[in-house]
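Model it.
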Amino acid sequence: MLEFILNGKKICADIPLGLTLLDFIRKEERLKGTKSACREGDCGSCTVLMGTLCGVNISYKSVTSCITPVGNAQGKHVVTVEGINLSGTSPIQQALIDAAAVQCGYCTPGIVMSLTGYIISQNHYSFESAKEAIAGNICRCTGYKSIEKAIALILEKINQVDKNNRLTWLVDNNYLPKYFEGIKMQLESIKNPEVKKIFKPIIGGGTDLYVQKPEEMFKADPFLVSDFPLLNKIERDGDKFTLGAACKISDLMHHQGLEERLLHIKKHLRLIASEPVRNLATLAGNLVNASPIGDLSIMFLALDATVELLSITNEPRTLKLSHFFIDYKKTELAENEIIKNISFVLPAGEFHFNFEKVSKRKYLDIASVNSSILIQLENEKISNVHLSMGGVAPIPLYLAETCRWMLGKDLNILMIKGAAKIINDEIAPISDVRGSADYKRLLARQLFYAHFIELFPEKFDLEKLLIAEYS
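Modeled.
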């Protein structure tokens, strides 16, 4: 029996857990404001808010309902565009009208919901962060400039918000209906069902499975891990970080400890999907997909991560992530195992970490080639290095030979040039829809160069590296 709040209405029904939230909203509840379009989480027209009770507060996040199993709504508050209806337009809706940011209107409900989620959840409002909040909402009519003008109008008013009593202020100023003030009490009355065993199929955020196997997922009776407490923790013990398998990409982005040690982690993670998808996509989901260009796989390989596997029938075991991938779309995961967590230990002292990616679009796209590096120096010599690349082999590739060769070398152009030759021998790209094998070899070299240009700008630039390459 699934139990959650949809707008102001309590849902308590025997619903197939694998049904998408979008189909439940539109077909079962007949709420047509949430639009169905790409069915891949790419366009944002199906965006809704999902509120989770966190202590004394409710945390609202935008999610793409077309790839979200309705079972993930258990114990939560789901808000569609109908759920923010007032006697007139809200200030967000009015700003879109005043800035002529509405044309065909198909994408507008998703934009309204993304911006509503932004003003509910964000502590510091800015033009750039507001734009990022709607980065997953595609509009084919306006050219976006009118939407940016609407954002500016919204920010002029919302900066007056009382952040100590935000919900009351938003209700009093007609951003939200009054029923929002009673949602906390309703969520507290919902008891989540007790998990007695782990079974298959297993679904995390659904962001991959609902794109690849939608019909199969609709009919499934899945085990949903997104709110399974054992798998949803981020723990820090000094320089060791242990990330629960069901943690979301957005959890990494907003973890203070990670941001303190991996200084540009937010910038790197922004290259992965859009905010509504990052709010759904689980860490382990990216790994078990075993895509040769999985962005998180490439990052975790460069962090020399370890995965802990939890067995339904046998003892748990751990192994290096670099040993987890064994062939195209194949891993060491046994039939009766799931990933419990991913852990890594960051080096003591100063180190440098970077992630690079080439895709047809800079954001919201799958990589042609991606790469990550962790490097540590002692007296200008490389004392520690982990390098990974995607799109150049059947698996996310840890470049072990290149790393061994780089250890102990001076950090200079000759070293970079020599390492690039080792990389060229170690990779084995193939030609496919994302580029020819020769093109991917070129990208691999350029991304390797980009690491050093980004991390050591005072020592290297592209012109110097290219001169060295062809000298």
